[in-house]
User: Which sequence fits this backbone?
């Protein structure tokens, strides 16, 4: 092998090896520092979220305890509660006064969705802010069993009667002689819980915090999975470890299959696991950038070494041995070695190049030290940001509640006005107050329906093969209370499988069934669901037929428009149900229409395009 090749190879090998070793240790060191920093950040988030969660539950317990201990129950309503008689006009008036004077202002002020009283001897709901719940049997519920003796919190569970997740807090309700007369219970607004857990620090784009119950189901929606709460199960390494009552962190694939760094913690008081995660790609981005810089640096050093080898080989002189000695010292890691060859010829030039290579390596080490200092500096800054962000989160939380206060005040003051000046107001004044309170309630419902309408596309799930018979079963289960109350009869033909969003189609079926029951008039609702395949258009046509009051054909287009109510407020609702149906079906690429005549029932039709099992569907 020629001397030129030998020198070039030797210089390149030594330089690249030194740079690679330096780069590797710098990479590992930086990676370790960033991991510790992220784990500390995620742990702080879990601690903060747990503290806020416990504080939130404690506040709700205190509210129920204070209301249960109110002297109004003992002095004014105890006898009515014990001797509850729906046929007694006096009891009816006190029933109304209790709900409008105390219960409704309480749930508006304290953010409860329902407040109700359960008779202590048989578990029957006597009074509820939700009229549909009155008369229902609750004797087997934990909050009733424990609520007889103590203030009790039943952690998040799926309520069959409400057809949604619920958390119920109960307390004993006692009479003048401190004897138990009933159990007071309230369902908290879980939107507050989702807000607490879902609020992010804003420091990382992929930061994600969520709660999981002991059955592996999401309790709050994760950042990248809307509609997952009590609908989706998760079995990641982080969740499994938390459900084994372990605390710590790990690197694993999350519920989307994305590699993440996750910190997990089991909260025994509420029997929930809290998990906070960040994508590994985002966490290690600075480290990967550092690695790439070292690669480019190694390439530059290698090229410089090859050039130095060529220059040395041009002039073979006696100083070559000293040059070899210098290479050996460099190979030992002695960066303080100086090659003292004071010549202006080729050997002197080679010596100068060798010294230049040493200087580059020395600067590389200095750069690593500066990097470590920079990482430490940023760690201090981020800790300050975390503290500042925690203060900001508290401010946002308070502000968000303050923004709701005007609406609550309207309702509360109207009810207070009616109570205090009941004997001084005429019948019209009472009616006006009632209309105003009802208007506030409708405003809340309109806002909720508008949110549902707007989230059709934003929070959609991936299309998949969906069994429409299973969809119908879910819709009927969700509408069980209304079906039972109206004695509705629902029949159906054999239904096919379609490629679609299961959650969306359950909403469609549920809205159409509810519509048929609502507008059944004096008839016992009879509803029939069928489907047929249209080969010419390559789609399935579904129909929902009822025996209700029917619709004048001139209003066919209006009924699918938001807020269109053909019957005023004679029938309940916000006029959003069919508009949501139309938006969901059009999102699936289908059509929706109606055939009807007054007093002859209605048949609503919608189509779902037939897609192959292997066809890609993008949301």
Assistant:
């Amino acid at each position: 092998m020629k001397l030129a090749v030998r020198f070039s190879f030797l210089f390149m090998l030594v330089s690249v090896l030194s740079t690679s070793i330096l780069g590797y240790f710098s990479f590992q060191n930086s990676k370790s520092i960033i991991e510790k920093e992220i784990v500390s950040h995620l742990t702080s988030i879990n601690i903060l979220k747990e503290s806020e969660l416990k504080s939130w539950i404690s506040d709700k317990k205190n509210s129920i305890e204070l209301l249960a201990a109110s002297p109004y129950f003992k002095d004014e309503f105890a006898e009515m509660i014990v001797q509850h008689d729906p046929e007694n006009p006096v009891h009816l008036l006190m029933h109304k006064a209790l709900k409008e004077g105390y219960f409704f202002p309480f749930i508006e002020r304290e953010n409860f969705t329902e407040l109700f009283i359960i008779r202590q001897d048989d578990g029957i709901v006597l009074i509820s802010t939700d009229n549909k719940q009155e008369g229902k049997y609750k004797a087997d519920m934990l909050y009733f069993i424990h609520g007889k003796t103590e203030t009790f919190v039943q952690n998040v569970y799926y309520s069959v009667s409400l057809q949604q997740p619920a958390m119920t807090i109960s307390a004993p309700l006692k009479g003048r002689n401190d004897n138990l007369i009933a159990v007071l219970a309230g369902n908290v607004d879980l939107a507050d819980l989702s807000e607490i857990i879902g609020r992010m620090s804003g420091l990382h784009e992929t930061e994600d915090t969520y709660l999981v119950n002991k059955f592996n189901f999401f309790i709050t929606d994760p950042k990248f999975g809307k509609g997952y709460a009590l609908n989706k199960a998760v079995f990641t390494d982080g969740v499994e470890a938390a459900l084994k009552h372990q605390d710590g962190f790990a690197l694993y694939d999350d519920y989307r299959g994305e590699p993440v760094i996750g910190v997990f913690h089991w909260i025994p008081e509420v029997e929930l696991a809290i998990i906070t995660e960040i994508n590994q790609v985002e966490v290690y981005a600075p480290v990967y950038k550092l690695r790439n810089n070292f690669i480019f640096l190694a390439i530059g050093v290698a090229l410089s070494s090859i050039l130095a080898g060529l220059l040395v080989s041009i002039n073979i002189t006696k100083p070559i041995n000293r040059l070899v000695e210098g290479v050996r010292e460099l190979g030992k890691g002695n960066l303080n070695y100086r090659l003292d060859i004071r010549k202006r010829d080729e050997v002197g030039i080679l010596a100068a190049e060798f010294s230049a290579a040493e200087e580059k390596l020395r600067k590389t080490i200095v750069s690593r030290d500066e990097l470590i200092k920079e990482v430490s500096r940023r760690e201090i800054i981020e800790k300050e940001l975390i503290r500042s962000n925690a203060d900001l989160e508290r401010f946002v939380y308070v502000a968000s509640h303050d923004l709701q206060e005007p609406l609550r005040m309207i309702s509360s003051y109207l009810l207070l006005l009616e109570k205090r000046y009941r004997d001084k107001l005429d019948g019209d004044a009472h009616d006006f107050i009632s209309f105003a309170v009802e208007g506030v309630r409708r405003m809340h419902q309109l806002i909720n329906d508008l949110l549902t309408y707007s989230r059709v596309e934003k929070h959609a799930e991936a299309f998949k093969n969906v069994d429409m018979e299973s969809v119908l079963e879910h819709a009927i289960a969700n509408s069980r209370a209304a079906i039972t109350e109206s004695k509705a009869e629902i029949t159906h033909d054999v239904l096919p499988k379609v490629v679609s969003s299961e959650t969306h189609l359950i909403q469609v079926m549920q809205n159409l069934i509810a519509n048929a029951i609502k507008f059944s008039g004096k008839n016992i609702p009879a509803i029939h669901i069928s489907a047929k395949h249209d080969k010419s258009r390559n789609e399935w046509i579904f129909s929902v037929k009822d025996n209700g009051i029917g619709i004048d054909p001139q209003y066919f287009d209006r009924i699918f428009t938001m807020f269109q109510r053909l019957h005023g407020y004679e029938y309940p609702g916000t006029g959003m149900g069919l508009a949501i149906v139309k938006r969901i079906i059009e999102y699936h690429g289908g059509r929706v229409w109606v055939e009807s005549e007054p007093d002859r029932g209605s048949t609503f039709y919608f189509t779902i395009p037939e897609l192959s099992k292997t066809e890609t569907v993008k949301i």
Remarks:
- The domain at 193-283 is CATH 3.30.450.20 (Beta-Lactamase).
- Residues 346-420 form the longest helix (75 residues).
- The longest strand covers residues 164-174.
